Automatic annotation (TrEMBL):
The keyword Nucleotidyltransferase does not apply. Gene3D superfamilies: ABC transporter type 1, transmembrane domain (1.20.1560.10), P-loop containing nucleotide triphosphate hydrolases (3.40.50.300). It comes from the Eukaryota. GO terms for molecular function: ABC-type oligopeptide transporter activity; ATP binding; ATP hydrolysis activity; auxin efflux transmembrane transporter activity; auxin influx transmembrane transporter activity. Residues 386-622, 1046-1283 form the ABC transporter domain. GO terms for cellular component: mitochondrial inner membrane; plasma membrane. Residues 8-26 have a biased composition (Basic and acidic residues). Residues 65-351, 725-1011 form the ABC transmembrane type-1 domain. PROSITE patterns: ABC_TM1F (PS50929), ABC_TRANSPORTER_1 (PS00211), ABC_TRANSPORTER_2 (PS50893). Pfam families: ABC_membrane, ABC_tran. This is ABC_tran domain-containing protein/ABC_membrane domain-containing protein. GO terms for biological process: oligopeptide export from mitochondrion.
Length: 1291
């Protein structure tokens, strides 16, 4: 009887999914739209389904045939069951007086046969399809990688990046495997159930079948309409929440601006406004879902009513038996249900076909330069003359940029040629052409006078060795890395190569020696070590031609010397081509060619070329000398950190910052990136992991989250108690429906065997009862989902608001931590709040409904026949267990396999990421072998999983049908002993199976609660945390009038996110009322920190800051911040109109006159009036629609409208061009009059006129005074800063 569940099952799942969808909302929304677009483009490109199997071998075909046979058998078992069921009712109904047991036991045996048969069929279906899917997917993966590795390098420039490839290998093959594995079996099973059901129904009673078919279109229409409505509603809810999420993103992304302008209240109000709309659409969605489900159930019950009334008519007029009527009803039901369940299979096929298109296209692609192509010349050896003759070339990725037009170069064998020139002149291109990574468009590349194209590619590449600027090492041991140079190299050869490359010393020092793993991309080794391993790899190859592409440029002086020595050793009597920037490396070359814009402009030896002082080479040399000079001077400035490292570290830290903070808002960018780069020694890879993997989920604190009492959550839902009560009543009603349905069905079965008159009367009555039941469902279902979604949406809204209020009042330091970036907080607010809802409302509904079902089922069963009830009850857990086992089997193994495939895709990732190295060393075969080795484990696991799942799946059918057989046999025995009656047997059976069905359906929601628990914990963690510096705190004093005297006394400070770096140590500074103080110093000296401390974004570790003689932490925070106006380097504007952005300074309620006056003062009025919409112009995300100078002036207007007593200017003009700077500076000069002003600046023009200039260095003030006084101190800090500035601006 599991038949009846199909329908409610699928719908329940669908609604719960759509609810989750709505909550997911915003974060995904943009993403989904993007996906939507790509999907639409992709729709056109799919592969026909049969093509997915084009890589099957004979074993696969055998497996697929067996699997299909099994699937058909398994599919037919359900319709066959309906026949047996019909016979069963007949054997009860027609043998009421004599030998019931004999008749029933015959039929029960059929159930047992069916059980055994369907066990075999189900086992075959699942196992064969899973195994063949696994095998073919593995084959496709390997083929894909193999064809990728044989593609020419140009293909990778243009077509694919590593991420895409790995995504294809792991993601797309999973989709393909899905479309050609067990889903095919499932689909065949469902289709054969459908066909079988209708065939049986038509044979048993074609007329009744036709009548029943009439209701199917109605069902389809109702289901379809409901699905459309729900998705419409869900997307409305998503859009509403997406807007709320933007508020979160904007507010947290620019928390410093919000804090400085005390804009917390405004942000909360606008967030709340959007939450309101999201709430409304959430409730509507609940209503529609409930209504839709109700209507579908109503139609289903209606069709039962029709079947009963018409079935009775058939019994009277056409001589059907009751069993046949039941058989037809069940068969039609089974058949039509199975069609409904086939839709996930269809979507899996579609996804697989689309995924296969791109992969198969790649697999079939024939490269122009084919590494696997064995044709072509091989000579005994080559001399190594290289000539490029009249070469025309442009990169395939940038066909419009001609690199070479008519390039010529000749390098005789055994000589060393160096190519020098500016970046982008085409030096490295020569090297790519010699290795035949690309073919020239015209002209030819000759080696020993033979065109490269005529050689066998693999052979000629074996003669050419490459050492490049960023040597690519593979994720394996040092020994394996060197061995890439030569197939089947012995350990002795590898050692010798390492000796020659000056690498043996450092390798021997490593604990595992040659077997040390180098880490991904060689990260475990230093630059010089990596380079030497790469050289050893090239030496092992013993090439005739050696190509050195910037081989030492990324090294520090010491490593460079060692590596250079190794190179000099191996360059002896080989043709060597060197590309270099540093001229020291090319001095000794036999010939130096200067390349400029794809032409050789000069060539000769070093001294020969130097003779022409106006020549290109001499100019290059001079440029380098000049750079060296400046490098030295700035070296001393930069605490002797070498420029080289500096370049890397600041790049790394700026990357880190941009990843972890999103943007920590105002005036922070400059000092962060510097202080960090000084504070980190090179060896410490602090957040490298975070940098390497930007996709990683936000790092939540690792400590175990404490369990959250449900009481607290329920308390949050307290105002909705009346709503929840009504909902609970509806849920109880809903839970009673299925057991009552079981009661009705069993009574109806009995009435089929009554005398004609009664049958006529009863059938009408019961048909009406089914209609009534349908109406009840309609009402109960609608009420339940509606009231619970009201309560749930309210809870979500309340939690989101609470959290947001809490977050926005956190101290600024809290946002510096990576786990509190705007993205992470946004995710917590959107996803976590939504998940929590499942723990209260929906969970409650589920539990109440289950209890109602269980109680009703048991009551009905025990009242009808307690003996049979006990027997059936004992067997029901068996069915439950099988279902559980099946679930476990499905989940347990696949996770394991996925992790194992990760290793394999790592190999692929490595190889594709360094395709040039793979090509250059002809290592394609090697990579493939490694890949296949790594795939063996997961494949075995996959096959094992197939077998086990098959057994589990088969067992569940076996047990299900055996339970049927047993319970009816027991029933027959009881009837014979006169302990029970025919209708009671069916009543017990249906009441219990229906109850069990209802419960098992609802329990499918169980796994969500663990997610909800951790979500709740993370939310209460936010709600319970108290802000260290809370702007909503009303306590603290306010001053009547502010003069603006500021004093910093003995302040020491470190940023909480970098406690090891002292920013200030005992800094003291007095700023007098109405005066302008300028802070100057190097980046990272702590100038901007003064501004953060004045606004109390942070509190100092020791010492104190006073305003008009009162310590600022005793003042009311909000009031304090309103006394200060901040204009920072990168002003943050909100995505709103210019008018709103200016009014933001006054908490949003400024009069039009005030806004205009402020804009006038800020020199902004004229450009704003010039815009088409004037003050109503939307500035775009982060003010992107305005130019830098315009943004800055709007920001100044926003600061002016505050009428601040203290003005804080953090590099307010540094990011502008000269013209904008003049206008903005003009505006600033106007507003600085009679205000205490603190200026932080790099550019001198901005600080010359300050009343006091304070020079900050190493956390203290080293000089202060007026510009004229400071500039005259010989060798003073200020004077040297100015000198540096001057020389920088002149060059």
């Amino acid at each position: 009887m599991a038949v009846l569940n199909g329908d409610t099952d699928t719908h329940d799942v669908r609604t719960s999914k759509s609810n989750e969808g709505a909550e997911k909302g915003s974060a995904d929304n943009g993403h989904q739209q993007m996906l939507g677009n790509t999907k639409r483009d992709k729709k056109t490109n799919t592969v026909p389904l049969h093509k997915l199997f084009s890589f099957a071998d004979s074993t696969d075909y055998l497996l697929m045939i067996l699997g299909t046979v099994g699937a058909v058998g398994n599919g037919v078992s359900m319709p066959l069951m309906t026949i047996i069921f019909g016979e069963l009712t007949d054997s009860f109904g027609q043998n009421l007086n004599d030998n019931v047991v004999h008749a029933v036991s015959k039929v029960s045996l059929k159930f047992v046969y069916l059980a055994v048969g369907s066990f075999a069929a189900a086992f075959l279906q699942v196992t064969c399809w899973m195994v063949t899917g696994e095998r073919q997917a593995a084959r496709i993966r390997a083929l894909y990688l193999k064809t990728l590795l044989r593609q020419n390098v140009g293909f990778f420039d243009k077509e694919t990046n590593t991420g895409e490839v790995v995504g294809r290998m792991s993601g797309d093959t999973v989709l393909i495997q899905d479309a050609m594995g067990e889903k095919v079996g499932k689909f065949i099973q469902l289709i054969s159930t459908f066909v079988g059901g209708f065939i049986i129904a038509f044979i048993k009673g074609w007329l009744l079948t036709l009548v029943l078919l009439a209701t199917i279109p109605l069902l389809v229409a109702a289901g379809g309409a409901m699905a459309i409505m729900i998705s419409k509603m869900a997307s409305l809810g998503q859009n509403a929440y997406a807007k709320a999420a933007t508020v979160v993103e904007q507010t947290i992304g620019s928390i410093r601006t919000v804090a400085s302008f005390t804009g917390e209240k405004q942000a909360i109000d606008s967030y709340n406004k959007f939450l309101g709309t999201a709430y409304k659409s959430g409730v509507n969605e609940g209503l529609v879902t409930g209504l839709g489900l109700g209507i579908v159930m109503f139609i289903i019950f209606g069709s039962y009513a029709l079947a009963i009334w018409f079935g009775a008519k058939m019994i009277l007029e056409k001589g059907y038996t009751g069993g046949e009527v039941l058989n037809v009803i069940l068969a039609v039901l089974t058949g039509s249900m199975s069609l409904g369940q086939a839709s996930p299979c269809m979507s899996a096929f579609a996804a697989g076909q689309a995924a296969a298109h791109k992969m198969f296209e790649t697999i079939e692609r024939k490269p122009e330069i084919d590494a696997y192509d064995m044709r072509g010349k091989t000579l005994d050896d080559i001399r190594g003359d290289i000539e490029l003759k009249d070469v025309y070339f442009s990169y395939p990725a940038r066909p419009n940029e001609q690199i070479f037009s008519g390039f010529c170069l000749y390098i005789p064998s055994g000589t060393t040629a160096a190519l020098v020139g500016q970046s982008g002149s085409g030096k490295s291109t020569v090297i790519s052409l010699i290795q035949r990574f690309y073919d020239p468009e015209a002209g030819e590349v000759l080696i020993d006078g033979i065109n490269l194209k005529e050689f066998q590619l693999k052979w000629i590449r074996n003669k050419v060795g490459l050492v490049s600027q960023e040597p690519v090492l593979f994720t394996c041991s040092i020994k394996d890395n060197i061995a890439y140079g030569k197939d089947g190299a012995t350990v002795e050869e590898i050692r010798a190569a390492a000796e020659l490359a000056n690498a043996a010393k450092f390798i021997d020092k490593l604990p595992q020696g040659l077997d040390t793993m180098v880490g991904e991309h060689g990260t475990q080794l230093s630059g010089g070590q990596k380079q030497r391993v790469a050289i050893a790899r090239a030496i092992l190859k013993d090439p005739r031609i050696l190509l050195l592409d910037e081989a030492t440029s990324a090294l520090d002086a010491e490593s460079e010397r060692v590596v250079q020595e190794a190179l000099d050793r191996i360059m002896v009597n080989r043709t060597t081509v060197i590309v270099a920037h540093r001229l020291s490396t090319v001095r000794n070359a036999d010939m130096i060619a200067v390349i400029h814009h794809g032409k050789v402009v000069e060539k000769g030896s070093h001294f020969g070329l130097l003779k022409d002082p106006e020549g290109a080479y001499s100019q290059l040399i001079r440029l380098q000398e000049a750079n060296k000079e400046t490098e030295h001077t700035s070296d001393e400035k930069n605490n002797d950190i070498t420029i080289e490292y500096f370049r890397h570290s600041s790049l790394k830290t700026s990357l880190k910052r941009s990843l972890s903070k999103g943007s920590s808002g105002a005036g922070n960018s400059s000092h962060h990136s510097f202080t960090v780069s000084f504070g980190l020694p090179k060896g410490l890879n602090i957040t490298d992991s975070a940098v390497a993997d930007p996709e990683a989920p936000p790092l939540l604190p690792p400590q175990k989250t404490p369990g959250v009492p449900i009481r607290r959550l329920a308390y949050l839902n307290k105002p909705e108690i009346p709503v929840l009560l009504i909902g609970t009543i509806a849920a109880v009603a809903n839970g009673l429906i299925l057991p009552i349905f079981g009661l009705l069905i069993s009574t109806v079965i009995k009435s089929f065997y009554e005398p004609p008159e009664e049958l006529k009367k009863d059938s009408r009555f019961w048909a009406l009862m089914f209609m009534v039941l349908g109406l009840a469902t309609l009402l109960a279902s609608t009420a339940r989902t509606y009231f619970f979604s009201v309560a749930g949406c309210k809870l979500v809204q309340r939690i989101r608001l609470l959290c947001f209020e809490k977050v926005i009042h956190m101290e600024v330091g809290w946002f510096d931590e990576a786990e509190n970036s705007s993205g992470a907080i946004g995710a917590r607010l959107s996803a976590d709040a939504a998940t929590v809802r499942g723990l209260v409302g929906d969970k409650l509904a589920q539990i109440v409904e289950n209890i109602a079902s269980a109680v009703a089922g048991l009551v009905i069963a025990f009242v009808s026949s307690w003996q049979l009830a006990f027997i059936v009850l004992a067997l029901i857990p068996l069915i439950g267990t099988t279902g559980y086992i099946q679930m476990k089997f499905m989940t347990g193994f696949s996770a394991d396999a996925k992790r194992m495939y990760e290793e394999a895709s790592h190999v692929a990732n490595d190889a594709v990421g360094s395709i040039r190295t793979v090509s250059s060393f002809c290592a394609e075969e090697k990579v493939m072998e490694l890949y296949k080795k790594k795939c063996e484990g997961p494949m075995k696991a996959g096959i094992r999983q197939g077998l086990i799942s098959g057994i589990g799946f088969g067992l569940s059918f076996l047990l299900l049908y055996s339970v049927y057989a047993l319970s009816f046999y027991a029933g027959a025995l009881l009837i014979e002993d006169g302990k029970t009656t025919f209708s009671d047997v069916f009543r017990v059976f249906f009441a219990l199976t229906m109850a069990a069905l209802g419960i098992s359906q609802s329990s499918s929601f169980a796994p969500d609660s663990s997610k909800a628990k951790s979500a709740t914990a993370s939310i209460f963690a936010i709600i319970d945390r108290n802000s260290k510096i809370d702007p909503s705190d009303e306590s603290g004093t306010t001053l009547e009038s502010v003069k603006g005297e500021i004093e910093l006394c003995h302040v020491s400070f470190r940023y909480p996110s970098r406690p090891d770096t002292h920013i200030f140590q005992d800094l003291s500074l007095a700023i007098h009322a109405g005066k302008t103080v300028a802070l100057v110093g190097e980046s990272g000296s702590g100038k901007s920190t003064v501004i953060s401390l004045l606004q109390r974004f942070y509190d100092p570790d020791s010492g104190y800051i006073k305003l008009d003689g009162v310590e600022i932490h005793t003042l009311q925070l909000k009031w304090l911040r309103q006394q200060m106006g901040l204009v920072s380097q990168e002003p943050v504007l909100f995505n709103d109109t210019i008018r709103t952005n200016i009014a933001y300074g006054r908490g949003g309620d400024a009069t039009e006159a005030e806004i205009l006056a402020a804009a006038e003062m800020a020199n902004a009025h004229s450009f704003i009036s010039g815009l088409q919409q004037g003050y109503d112009t939307i500035v775009g995300e982060r003010g992107i629609q305005l130019s830098g100078g315009q943004k800055q002036r709007v920001a100044i207007a926003r600061a002016i409208i505050k009428r601040p007593k203290i003005l804080l200017l953090d590099e307010a003009t540094s990011a502008l061009d000269a013209e904008s700077e003049r206008v903005v500076q003009d505006a600033l000069d106007r507003i600085m009059v009679n205000r205490t002003t603190v200026v932080v600046a790099h550019r001198l023009s901005t600080i010359k006129n300050a009343d006091v200039i304070a020079v900050v260095k190493n956390g203290v003030i080293v000089e202060k005074g007026r510009h004229e006084a400071l500039i005259n101190i010989k060798d003073g800090f200020y004077a040297s800063l100015v000198a540096l500035h001057m020389s920088a601006s002149t060059t």
